[in-house]
Amino acid sequence: MTAIASPSIHNLIGGMWVTSTSPAGIELLNPATGEPLGNSPAGSAAEVDAAVQAAHAAFASWRTVPAADRVQYLFKLKSLLEVHLDELASLITIENGKTLAESKGELRRGIENVEVACGIPVLMQGYSLEDVAPGIDEIMVRQPLGVCAVITPFNFPLMIPLWFLPYAIATGNTVVLKPSDRVPFSAARLLELIQETGLPDGVVNLVNGGKAAVDALLDHPLIRAVSFVGSTPVARHVYARGSASGKRVQCQGGAKNHVVVLPDADQETTTKIIADSAFGCAGQRCLAVSVTVTVGEAKDWFRDAIASAASSLKVGNGLDPNTQMGPVITHASRERVVSLIGQGADQGAKTIVDGRRTNGNAGAGSFVGPTVLDGLPAQSPLMETEIFGPVLSVVHADTVDEAVAMIERSAYGNASSIFTSSGASARKFRTSVSTGNVGINIGVPAPMAYFPFSGWKGSFFGVMHAQGRDAVEFFTDKKVIVERWPKEWSRKF
User: Fold this and answer.
1) Which residues have a catalytic role annotated?
2) Name one GO molecular function term (predicted).
3) Residues 434 and 472 in one domain
4) Which residue pairs from 379-383 have beta carbons closer than 8 angstroms and sit at least 24 positions apart in sequence?
5) Domain that holds residue 92
6) Is residue 352 in some structural domain?
């Protein structure tokens, strides 16, 4: 078992680990045991400025390093992440609560992004055309922006930093990473490994803190771009404030993801996949299914099948290899989820599986068990609320069109899926549904790193998404060069 090496939380500024001088922020507890892990600093504008200045100073030389040389550090990082995978997974589980298997899966997704970013010598290429006019050539090149801020949430302590950081530095930018103040230890260990690659000091910096640190990054004149993942209200704030400061901003927000189950879906496979999607990571992921819409006769078998699957899950400490679902992040999160389950019951839903009484909450952990709410009314506020816990609502529709209409009414547009053996139904669904990520017989349609992690409506603010070609576009500016070299000029030399 990996333990937290030290409860002290430091910033990394210009290659030096320094103690935060800001006031203490939130107390950090192991979500499964309640054991204290330390205190996260509140953060300050002065600390943010020091990190940004270090990144700015490093940018001038880093941008001139050939792309093929820049990615060598990423090749080394990939190797180090593989070597330390078990250690990092344990660290994620201790401070976040998810199971070891989920932590390892998160890391695999992060490593995948490092691998894709290693292709920057090809992905960053521009294009050219000779003789756009007589004797005139035109060239488009991509150049780095400068200092980029990366602000990440608690639910994926390492995967989401790796959505952005590898692409930013591979394209020649420098970075200030501000991890969630609830999970600072994983990010610190990641940056220790980055230092082991020999990456020049100041190219990647780490500053801890809460809202004060975030706002300081959004306002800082040397920050050129901001990447953010979190709830929709905060995403809207980050996007508005960062954009008002003239920055390029991409913000992944919240979600209320639906899956549609048709009568011809494979019952066993569908139930297992949806249970994994709804209750994996204790429901604390932006692609978790929140609402299952059964169509026609699917209602007859799905309700009992999902109730059985939810009831059978073993809830406990994620470090236990037998655990299938861990706790939510804090006691406050648990109380919020429990309260929302109660609201659903008060509004007419039947709690066919009630996680409020899970035996996983014995002791000091922040456990809430898998919960299935059947028949939540369409007008219930919970149909639009991102619960961010292991709660699945089951509702019914008579037709696919009716099911799609339910999805269209949602203010969110992160992901949706359909389970069916009909190609025609699947094609109709994927064409008409207004979500950025779509699954066909897939519960969590998480794009591979070489595709953009899409999101529509209230789930995303910006133009270019994370990962793949979108990441290259986001972290570079296009420069167009038009040049003419008349023959008579060349004869002078």
Assistant:
1) 286
2) methylmalonate-semialdehyde dehydrogenase (acylating, NAD) activity
3) no
4) 380/344, 380/347, 380/348, 380/349, 381/343, 381/347, 382/340, 382/343, 382/344, 382/347, 382/349, 383/256, 383/291, 383/410
5) 10-253+459-480
6) yes
